[in-house]
């Protein structure tokens, strides 16, 4: 461990290309290695089509969420990480409250990062699967616009799925 | 910019993300979301995953399968990522299997899993029309004759368990899956002298339990990296000696010349070792509670 910084100094490797991602929500900036950022298909398309300037603005994603996304991309850009390591790291990233997860899934969708979209969707599913309807409505900001009669009719259509369910 | 992060974002989750979240939930839960609001009424019908194996619901113990057919009749996604159903405690043949497999095949299913534990169902012919299939897991199947089909060109992962399948059927299927990477045969009956020839195969798991039925296992798979065998002692023939990871778990019983089983004895280790001489790359053999190094 002690010799690691020295090795870095001595290394004559070509300078790594970096990109700066900037959250347009709170103007927080993140400098990341290009190969890390390119795990986002959205960013890759921007870079490939020469649409990316020195600073890539990321709309609708806060610095807090962007930091999680970058952590995910760093982990998955590391060629020496084993499948087990990645699983553990992913579990750590999605060990968040439901509202953070919803922001994260939107970020993964916007930046087009398939793996992050999958693990976050799975985690959201796990978090809501034992909740009553009222809580699920609250989480997804859903307003019940059925009349009681309509709701009863929808229930009756699939009575088997509601068996034993209040 | 309208959306500002935090709780304001949540009502803006697009349908395709909601449908993706639903794909990780048991079928009955996804249907129940239809009463959340009118927007949610039909969302579940667009799920790319139909997985009844996640269901904790007691209907999977009932004899009535009409709910599956009703579900499929309402489903609207033009393509399916996965169709899976699992049943145990079945009292007889379930004719609906034919319809389920045909449904999945016409929707270009990529992962198909049909698991019955205590009844054999005849492999529906529509299975062979599922050209998009990448992963196939069948249990409780009966293959009566070698399939006459062009092949599963995209199939990478094949697992067949608790099934009746003959030597020639295994050979026919394996030879018509050009990119097959993983093959698992678990507790299948009807296998005596099996030849597995596959160029791309990386992983082969053979779990044989019908004592003494299997006599010979010939493997011709130049890219095999992992071979696991569990069962009675049989003759192996590995055409390519470059397998990195071999695990052999022999049962404590050996077939003797006159055809009955006796308990495994210390002297048998020597016999096993002679068999192993053919497997120059074997790292270890696992006997129950014993590990014997092979050099």
UniProtKB/TrEMBL annotation, chain A:
The record's section on InterPro entries has: SKP1, SKP1-like, SKP1-like_dim_sf, SKP1/BTB/POZ_sf, Skp1_comp_dimer, Skp1_comp_POZ
Q: Which terms under GO biological process does the entry name?
A: jasmonic acid mediated signaling pathway; protein ubiquitination; ubiquitin-dependent protein catabolic process
- The UniProt record lists the SKP1 component dimerisation domain at 114-161
Q: Pfam families under this entry?
A: Skp1, Skp1_POZ
* Keywords linked to the UniProt accession: Ubl conjugation pathway
Residue limits of the SKP1 component POZ domain?
Answer: 26-77
Instruction: Cite the annotated pathway.
Output: Protein modification; protein ubiquitination
Gene3D superfamilies in UniProt: Potassium Channel Kv1.1, Chain A
Instruction: Fetch the SMART domains from UniProt.
Output: Skp1
What is said about its interaction partners and assembly? Part of a SCF (SKP1-cullin-F-box) protein ligase complex.
Q: Family, per the entry? A: Belongs to the SKP1 family.
Role according to the record:
Involved in ubiquitination and subsequent proteasomal degradation of target proteins. Together with CUL1, RBX1 and a F-box protein, it forms a SCF E3 ubiquitin ligase complex. The functional specificity of this complex depends on the type of F-box protein. In the SCF complex, it serves as an adapter that links the F-box protein to CUL1.
Q: Which PANTHER family match?
A: SKP1 (PTHR11165)
From the Swiss-Prot or TrEMBL record, give the protein name. Answer: SKP1-like protein
Q: Which organism is it from?
A: Actinidia rufa
TrEMBL record, chain B:
Q: Sorted alphabetically, which CDD domains does this protein's record hold?
A: F-box_AtFBL13-like (cd22160)
InterPro entries, per the entry: At1g61320/At1g61330-like, F-box-like_dom_sf, F-box_AtFBL13-like, F-box_dom, LRR_At1g61320_AtMIF1, LRR_dom_sf
| PROSITE patterns tied to this protein | FBOX
Gene3D superfamilies membership = 1.20.1280.50, Ribonuclease Inhibitor
* Domain (F-box) ranges: 7-60
What name does this protein carry? Answer: F-box domain-containing protein
């Amino acid at each position: 461990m002690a010799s690691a910084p020295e090795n870095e100094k001595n290394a004559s490797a070509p300078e790594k290309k970096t990109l700066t991602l900037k959250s347009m929500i709170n103007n927080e900036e993140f400098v990341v290695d290009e190969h890390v950022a390119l795990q986002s298909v959205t960013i890759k398309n921007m870079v490939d089509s020469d649409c990316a300037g020195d600073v890539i603005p990321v709309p609708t994603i806060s610095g807090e969420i962007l930091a999680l996304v970058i952590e995910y991309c760093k982990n998955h850009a590391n060629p020496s990480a084993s499948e087990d390591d990645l699983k553990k790291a992913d579990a750590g990233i999605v060990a968040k409250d439901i509202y953070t997860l919803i922001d994260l899934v939107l970020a993964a969708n916007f930046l087009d990062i398939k793996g992050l979209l999958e693990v976050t969707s799975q985690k959201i599913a796990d978090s809501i699967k034992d909740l009553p309807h009222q809580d699920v409505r609250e989480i997804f900001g859903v307003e019940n616009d059925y009349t009681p009669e309509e709701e009863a009719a929808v229930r009756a259509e699939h009575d088997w799925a509601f068996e034993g369910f209040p | 910019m309208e959306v500002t992060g935090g709780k304001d974002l949540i009502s803006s989750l697009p349908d395709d993300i909601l449908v993706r979240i639903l794909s990780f939930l048991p079928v009955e839960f996804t249907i129940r979301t239809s009463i959340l609001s009118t927007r949610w009424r039909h969302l579940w019908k667009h799920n790319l995953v139909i997985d009844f194996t996640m269901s904790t619901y007691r209907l999977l113990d009932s004899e009535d399968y009409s709910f599956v057919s009703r579900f499929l009749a309402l489903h609207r996604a033009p393509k399916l990522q996965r169709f899976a159903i699992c049943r145990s405690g079945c009292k007889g043949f379930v004719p609906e299997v034919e319809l389920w497999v045909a449904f999945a095949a016409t929707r270009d299913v990529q992962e198909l899993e049909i698991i019955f534990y205590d009844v054999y169902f005849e492999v529906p012919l529509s299975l062979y029309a599922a050209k998009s299939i990448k992963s196939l897991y069948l249990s409780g199947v009966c293959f009566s004759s070698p399939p006459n089909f062009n092949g599963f060109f995209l199939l990478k992962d094949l697992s067949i368990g608790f099934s009746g399948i003959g030597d020639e059927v295994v050979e026919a299927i394996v030879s018509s899956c050009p990119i097959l990477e993983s093959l698992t045969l678990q507790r299948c009956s009807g296998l005596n002298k099996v030849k597995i020839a596959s160029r791309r195969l990386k992983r082969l798991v053979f779990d044989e339990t019908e004592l003494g039925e299997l006599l010979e296992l010939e493997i011709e798979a130049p890219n095999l990296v992992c071979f696991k065998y569990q069962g009675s002692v049989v003759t192996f023939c590995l055409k390519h000696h470059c397998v990195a990871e071999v695990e052999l778990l022999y049962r404590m019983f050996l077939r003797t010349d006159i055809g009955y089983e006796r308990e495994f004895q210390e002297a048998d280790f020597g016999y096993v070792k002679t068999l192993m001489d053919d497997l120059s790359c074997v790292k270890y053999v696992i006997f129950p509670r014993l590990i014997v190094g092979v050099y």
